[in-house]
Amino acid sequence: MKRERVSEIISVYGGFPVAWPPEDRAVAEALVAGDAGLRAEMHAAQALDRMLTDWARSPFPVSDADADAAAVRALGVPVEPNGRSGWLFPGALVGGAVAASLALAAVLLRPGPAVTPTEVATAGDPAGVELALNELGDEQAGAADDMLVWASVFTPTPEEESVI
Amino acid sequence: MLQVTRGAERSGEPGELMVAVIDGDNDAFRLLTRRLYGPAMGVAMRVLGDRAEAEDAVQAALVKLWRQAASFDATKAKVETWFRRIVVNACIDRKRTLRPVQPLDAVAERASDAPDPEVTAMRSERARQVDAAMAHLPARQRAAIAMFYGEGATMNEIAEVLETTPKAIEGLLARARAELAERLQPLATELNG
Asked: How far, in whole angstroms, is CA B40 from its chain's centroid?
């Protein structure tokens, strides 16, 4: 091994022989021992090694909570403000919305007399509505009842209309 | 919902957890993330020099781990090595696309104005100077230095992560050390004195 090779090893691996390639270490150390210039190179390199080791090994604290939050985000699941995963909430919300939509569609698209919530709600005369219900079959009357409830909740009264 | 019962039966060894992750086990993924997150953040912080960017890079790497779990080959690499490669590449991509290396003054100023008191307290003046010098290095050199000095990685291991040859890593480390030696000369003299 030549002096230049030892210098090259120090420039790549630093000034501590323990980091040098095992197959070169013994010979390189022997050459350094007899060469003041190489010893100076090694000494200078060791100072840089200490700084870089401190830099590379300085503690970087992370918690399990940090890791859990990252995992949940990676899985595409929202995190609630209290830090717990919101696994159940979106599923229930979506499921409820789908069920409500299907139920509403089933009622509105049911075959039979063309009775719509608007017609029921705008009939205005409760006696007329009662009469209309009496003319329907049980199943249709049930559906109309549902619509009547729906209309009473979501259709504004004349007083509300005036406010609007 | 997280499958706690399945997770409770596991040893928590990354290789075993990865097998379950490949099967789509959410809880195994959470446990594996706990094992990998700290080291990944450490490497990402050193390559990117910014906590928010490091968190984004590690997040992107975790998404990739989850979605591409099936591409993991246990006969070729350990989970930690495979994931470290994903993290380092995410950092290098991020560094390439986001912004150039910041000048020394800007880094020193930012470090001194760090809003996180924990981080501020942790950093000594020497560490800030090393950070500032590091900011001048390309991301690949920072990654190589972080792995070599932080984890004691061999040339072969670094080459595997950076997808190049061990010989190329030797050149990369030598250039990085030469640049740093010049920039940190006053500090080194102080330390040696």
From this structure: 5
Q: What is the pLDDT of residues B111-166, one digit of tens each?
A: 444 556 555 554 578 888 999 999 999 999 999 999 999 989 999 999 999 999 99
Query: B120: which residues sit within 8 A by CB, 6+ positions away?
Result: B114
Q: Residue B2's closest chain A neighbor by CA?
A: A87
Interchain contact, A11 vs B174, CB within 8 Å: yes
Best CA proximity match to B143, nearest among B129, B125, B163 = B163
Output the CA torsion sign for A104, A107, A110, A114. Answer: negative
- Tell me how close the Cα of A155 comes to any Cα of chain B, in angstroms: 40
- pTM higher than 0.80 for the full model? no
What residues of chain A lie within 8 A of the CB of B41, using their CB?
A: 60, 62, 66
Smallest Cα–Cα separation from B102: which of B45, B56, B49? B49
Picking from A136, A95, A131, A92, the residue whose alpha carbon sits closest to that of residue A114 is A136
Residue B11 DSSP class: -
Report the SS3 class of residue B1: coil
Residue among B42, B66, B122 whose CB faces A75 most closely = B66
